[in-house]
Amino acid sequence: MNICSIEEMIKQKKHLKRYIKWLIFFVLIILLHNVAAQTPPPSLDHEKLEKALTTIDLFELHRYETILKELLNSKSSPSRYLYNYYLGKIHLRTALYYESKSKENKTLLETSEYLINKARDKFKRVVRENDDFSDGYVYLAMAYAQKIKYVGYPTLLRYATRVDKNIKKALEKDPNSPRAYLVKGIQAMYKPPDHGGGVDKSIPLLLKSVKLDPAFHEGYYWLARAYVQNSFKGRDEEKSKDYLLKALRLSPDDYFYQLGLTPDVQIPEYKKGKKDSKK
Question: What are phi and psi of 135, to 5 degrees?
Answer without folding.
Answer: -65, -25
